[in-house]
Specification:
Structural class: alpha+beta
Number of helices: 11
Bound molecules: (2R,3S,4R,5S)-2-(hydroxymethyl)piperidine-3,4,5-triol
Mean pLDDT: 97
Radius of gyration: 25 Å
Number of strands: 33
Shape: globular
Oligomer: single chain
Strand content: 25-35%
Largest sheet: 10 strands, antiparallel
Low-confidence stretches: none
Distance between the termini: 53 Å
Helix content: 10-25%
């Protein structure tokens, strides 16, 4: 519910309240965010000595105030929400209240993904003191999930251009009592290390500048009270519906007054906004629970399952799959594929996924990305015939955003490639320029023909390098490139989702290098890591579960010794970890003994019997090695002891 009384805005969800007030100056002072039954207002700011007084009455000191939106140049020296260059070249902004409106709606952004389903909506219109520049603050309320989403839209009604240098999606000012900032850091095959720091007077930043949301720093972060544990204590969770470079920072100037912001990373970002043009920031998601980390996670899981994931597979059973990657890598042969499929089908596996290596002349990672036609040397009858012969649901791997220089596509269209002199390669491949509409149109058609020709019901969409040597040959404003790339990417995904509503997409970026809510708006599940070692995956599952439901985590039983770590774990334990997620097998079943095959058969039977609870039950962590799911009737615990079998 949203109310406005006595100049106070109150946003209520089932269990939380978010309160701020309108000051006479037109600023919005933040008062409270927390438990609905425990509302107490934070005190106004004060003059701390050499602070700047905003008004002649010397009553408002923005440096020590808690605010809903902070600008540059008027005395608020903490992390700003917005930074821009005005038409006259000046850098000061002062956005003040003009009006507000409340309605019910489903969020609709112009070019970015957003949650679906009806919500209550508060829009506050702010205008710059000097210029005809307007800032619209949006609050979207999902009562049942205790989630509030925010974003902002900047509109230029000046005749001249302005340059936007930073526009966050969310700002939360709070009183800090040794609170803890937790983020999830990592690298390739080593995703999601939970990392916590006490919030003190050093600015803490979690951000990505690799051109995707990144395994280096997942955009999901938490702020919690120092005594919070899995079941008790104050925990705030934040995420961003965005897949490009992101930024989350906690800044403290005065000992116990802190500010959290999140949004597009302002580093190497700038957007020119002409007369009557606007810029919208991605949707940020925030939730609060006084029931510790499990309470906060439950809110996030419900919100993602109900309002982020969509389409046919939102609640539909995800198929148990067999994937060819760790079974054969690039060494694909029709005979081997059919043998594997036959074994898989006998065991009860429901979907056969043909991974990398099926197209162009691709025998290793040096060539053919971009040439999306079936390699008839490996699959003489073509994809449709293979699909029919396999006689199971059929899935296929693609990496549409990339090109190898050794490919027909690159030879024909070098202008579509993102590259610069003395280019630095990553996995021998380069980005295609998705900020170029013509290329996006081409990719829509070429991918459509692959999906149609193969008759696939599942697509694994990969992206195997981070960005470097950024240079768009088409769009000369290079500071806009990464954001424009994602606008193109989302159009590509949106169109393919609409054209192929029956296809289940799984996102992947060399594992978890693009594991975020933007992706989950199009792809209901994401491959969590290229590391399939069961113990590593157990740790990652624990970490991912803080911000993401297990129903969106791709999770496979693979061969031992494990291909990444060389370690061996019992088959029972490998299943015990993988079953908390979208289950798959990724190994050559022909290499398993009769006894092992029987075990796999039993595992598949077990998963089918318990799939709904495992994927959509309430997930609880006791500690890193113990967790369970429950749907109220049935409870399934993770059996860590199987590790020693
Ligand atoms: C990286 C993925 O994460 C792997 O599972 C596999 O699909 C390879 N790419 C294929 O190149």
């Amino acid at each position: 519910m949203i109310s406005f009384d006595n100049k106070q805005f109150v946003i209520s969800t089932d269990k939380t309240s978010y309160v701020f007030e309108l000051l006479n100056t037109g600023h919005l002072r933040h008062l409270y965010y927390g438990n609905k039954d425990d509302v107490s207002f934070i005190k106004p700011g004060w003059d701390i000595g050499d602070t700047i007084a905003y008004d002649d009455n010397k009553k408002l000191f923005l440096e020590s105030e808690l605010l809903e939106v902070s600008t540059c140049g008027k005395g608020d020296i903490k992390e700003p929400f917005i930074e821009l260059i005005n038409p006259d070249g000046s850098l000061t902004s002062d956005f003040l209240y003009k009006s507000h409106s409340v309605d019910k709606c489903e969020i609709k952004l112009h070019n970015l993904p957003s949650p679906h389903g009806e919500c209550e909506h508060l829009c506050i219109e702010l205008k710059d003191y000097h210029f005809e520049i307007y800032l619209y603050l949006h609050f979207y309320v999902y009562e049942k999930e205790d989630v509030i989403c925010r974003n902002a839209v900047l509109v230029n009604r000046e005749k001249e251009d302005i340059v936007l240098q930073k526009l966050m999606s969310l700002q939360l000012d709070f009183e800090n009592d040794d609170m803890i900032f937790t983020c999830f850091r990592g690298s390739w095959a080593n995703e999601m290390h939970k990392t916590s720091s006490i919030i003190n007077q050093i600015k803490l930043v979690n951000s990505s500048n690799v051109g995707s949301s990144s395994s280096r720093a997942n955009p999901f972060v938490m702020i919690s009270s120092k005594d919070a544990n899995e079941d008790n204590g104050d925990v705030y969770g934040f995420n961003l519906v965005y897949s490009g470079n992101h930024y989350e920072a906690v800044d403290t100037i005065i000992q116990n007054r802190s500010r959290f912001v999140s949004g597009i990373n302002p580093d190497r970002f700038e957007f020119e906004i002409k007369n009557k043009e606007s810029f919208e920031s991605p949707i940020a998601v925030m939730t609060y629970s006084d029931k510790g980390f499990n309470g906060m996670s439950s809110n996030m899981h419900d919100f993602i399952n109900r309002h982020i994931v969509r389409g046919k597979y939102q609640y539909n059973r995800r198929p148990i799959l067999i994937n060819t990657w760790e079974a054969f890598y690039f060494d694909i042969e029709e005979r081997k594929l059919l043998e594997l499929a036959r074994k898989a089908k006998d065991l009860g596996i429901e979907l056969f996924v043909l991974d990398d290596g099926w197209f162009g002349g691709r025998n290793d990672a040096t060539s053919s990305l971009g040439d999306w036609t079936c390699d008839k040397n490996k699959i003489p009858g073509g994809l449709r015939k293979l699909n029919e012969d396999i006689d199971m649901n059929f899935g296929i791997w693609v990496e549409p955003e990339m090109v190898n220089t050794d490919s027909d596509l690159y030879r024909k269209h070098p202008e579509w490639c993102v590259e610069y002199d003395h280019h630095s390669e990553g996995r021998n491949q380069r980005y295609l320029d998705l900020s170029n509409d013509e290329l996006v149109d081409y990719l829509i058609e070429i991918m459509s023909s692959v999906f149609e020709e193969s008759g696939c019901t599942y697509v694994k969409w990969d992206l195997n390098r981070i960005m470097s040597d950024l240079y768009s040959k088409k769009n000369k404003r290079q500071m806009e490139f990464v954001h424009r790339y994602y606008l193109g990417f989302y159009r590509l995904c949106e169109t393919l989702n609409k054209r192929f509503p029956d296809i289940l997409f799984e996102g992947c970026s060399g594992g978890g290098n693009r594991f975020d809510l933007g992706i989950l708006c199009y792809f209901p599940q994401i491959w969590a890591s290229d590391n399939t070692d069961a113990e590593v995956r157990r740790r990652m599952l624990y970490s991912y579960s803080y911000g993401y439901p297990v129903s969106c985590i791709g999770s496979h039983v693979s061969a031992c010794p494990n291909h990444q770590t060389g370690r061996t774990f019992p088959l029972g334990y490998r299943y015990e970890v993988a079953k908390f997620g979208c289950l798959g097998y990724e190994l050559d079943l022909n290499k398993l003994s009769e006894e092992e095959l029987n075990m796999v058969k039993e595992q598949i039977k077990d998963f089918k019997e318990n799939r709904d609870v495992l994927m959509y039950g309430r997930f609880y962590r006791t500690d890193e090695k113990h967790f369970k799911v429950s749907d109220g009737n049935k409870e399934i615990s993770f059996d860590y002891n199987l590790i020693n079998e």
